[in-house]
């Protein structure tokens, strides 16, 4: 009888030299020398119109609106940074109703439509205001308005131009 074969465990642990120059998104030869975290603070506001008409009269759950508004923030920030012509976050010097976004999500009762405005307040501090909300499959969309359709963790950004709604981009699809 011969010898039994030995069990050899492969070495899976890699030794990383923190001073080594490696590839990053910008360069073939770079070294990370610092990392920091900055918390993003989002103030969520609700307009009186939205409170009185949609929430109290129509019975739309305020927590549902809150969750949809919060979920929309990461999508809006992604599109704001990724798309050169998408400039929806309002800064003090550039404000207006034309920068309102229609956020849509399918529900058992129909399509939940939530109009939001996003405002920059300070570095890492934003204000999101709920303007109006309605469950309606045929919600009125004005020309030039962006539509953010959220489906779980993914979203689709569309825009109505000269009466036609066309796709702009997608996130997480």
């Amino acid at each position: 009888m011969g010898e039994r074969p030995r069990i050899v465990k492969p070495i899976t642990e890699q030794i990383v030299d923190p001073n080594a120059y490696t590839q990053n998104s910008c360069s073939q030869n770079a070294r990370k020398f610092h990392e920091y975290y900055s918390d993003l603070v989002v103030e969520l506001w609700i307009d009186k119109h939205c409170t009185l008409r949609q929430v109290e009269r129509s019975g739309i759950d305020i927590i549902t609106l809150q969750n949809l508004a919060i979920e929309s923030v990461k999508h809006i920030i992604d599109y704001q940074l990724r798309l050169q012509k998408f400039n929806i976050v309002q800064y003090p010097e550039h404000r207006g109703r034309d920068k309102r976004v229609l956020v849509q999500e399918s529900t058992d009762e129909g399509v939940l439509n939530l109009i939001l405005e996003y405002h920059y307040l300070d570095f890492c501090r934003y204000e999101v205001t709920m303007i109006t909300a309605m469950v309606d499959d045929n919600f009125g969309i004005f020309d030039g308005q962006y539509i953010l359709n959220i489906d779980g963790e993914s979203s689709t950004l569309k825009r109505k131009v000269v009466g036609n709604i066309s796709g702009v981009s997608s996130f997480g699809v």
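The helical segments are 48-57, 62-82. The CA atoms of residues 8 and 14 lie 17 Å apart.
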